[in-house]
Design goal:
This protein is mostly helical. The protein is 79% helix and 0% strand. The protein is built from three helices and no strands. It has helices at 7-21, 28-48, 50-66. Helix 1 (7-21) packs antiparallel against helix 2 (28-48) and helix 2 crosses helix 3. The N and C termini lie far apart (38 Å).
C-alpha cells in the first residue's frame, strides 16, 4: 500500500492554498480537502507517538476555547 504525502508536505500545501483562497474563492474546496488531510495525518501521527497525541489534545482544546 502506498502512503500519502508527509505531514510536512501537506502543511506546506495547505499554507500555499490558503494564500490563494485570499484571492480566489474557487480554491476553498481544495483548501478544505488539504485541511482534512492534515488533520487525518496529525491524528495518525498522534496515535503512534504519545507526545504528539498530547500536543494534538492541547491544540484541540486551544481551538475550542477560541471558538
Amino acid at each position: 500500500m502506498r502512503e500519502g504525502p508527509s505531514l510536512e508536505r501537506l502543511i506546506a500545501a495547505r499554507a500555499a492554498i490558503a494564500e490563494l483562497v485570499a484571492e480566489i474563492d474557487l480554491a476553498i474546496p481544495l483548501f478544505e480537502r488539504l485541511d482534512e488531510l492534515v488533520q487525518e495525518a496529525e491524528a495518525a501521527q498522534a496515535a503512534v507517538d504519545p507526545i504528539e497525541r498530547a500536543r494534538a489534545v492541547a491544540r484541540a482544546r486551544a481551538q475550542s476555547a477560541i471558538a
